[in-house]
Amino acid sequence: MLLTTTSGLALLRFRVFSFRAMTSTFSGPSFRYISPTELGELMKSGKVSMKDYAVVDVRDDDFLGGNIVGCVRAPSSKYLTTVDDLVSKTKDVPKMIFHCALSQQRYSRFSAPEMSISRILFAFRGPKAARIYAETRNNRLNPGETPTQEIYVLRGGFTEFQRLFKGDPILVEKWRKEVWQGY
């Protein structure tokens, strides 16, 4: 059955609303945003990856084309089955930075004609992974214990980070021009 433009848009709004309802927390976000520039400064400050901070890349097939140096790869397609292990490995790391390709949080930044539902949901992976990580970590805390980790999402995701730093081998590795043409 073909959907009319109006009913197709209504379906899209319903799916996005349902997705937002599934992924939101009642107490507000469990993370803050960090800019690409702030992350670049952190990485060049002498701080050590996996000791002072960890960058978690939750992209799937779109991991091809480059990545942030020293990132931990945790594909979103397997994230729910690997998040416990990630929490264990990074429990002593004070700053956790999550990202996907776009690291968007809100549907309202997009207009329906510009993006397909898969592209919209694709943009939510970084914030969703950060929230799931925080919830998993918090579930392991003893009663009354307060989490000490700071959790961030990279604003603009890898798309923005690579746009700014693709030529800096301290920050970006395995960058492939042909993947990023048109971004």
UniProtKB/TrEMBL annotation:
Secretion signal span = none
Output the SUPFAM superfamilies linked to this UniProt entry: Rhodanese/Cell cycle control phosphatase
- One GO location term (cellular component): cytoplasm
One example of the protein's molecular function in GO is: protein tyrosine phosphatase activity
**Residues that span the membrane, as ranges:** none
PANTHER family the UniProt entry points to: ARSENICAL-RESISTANCE PROTEIN 2-RELATED, M-PHASE INDUCER PHOSPHATASE DUAL SPECIFICITY PHOSPHATASE CDC25
* Protein known as: Rhodanese domain-containing protein
Q: Which organism is it from?
A: Rhizoctonia solani
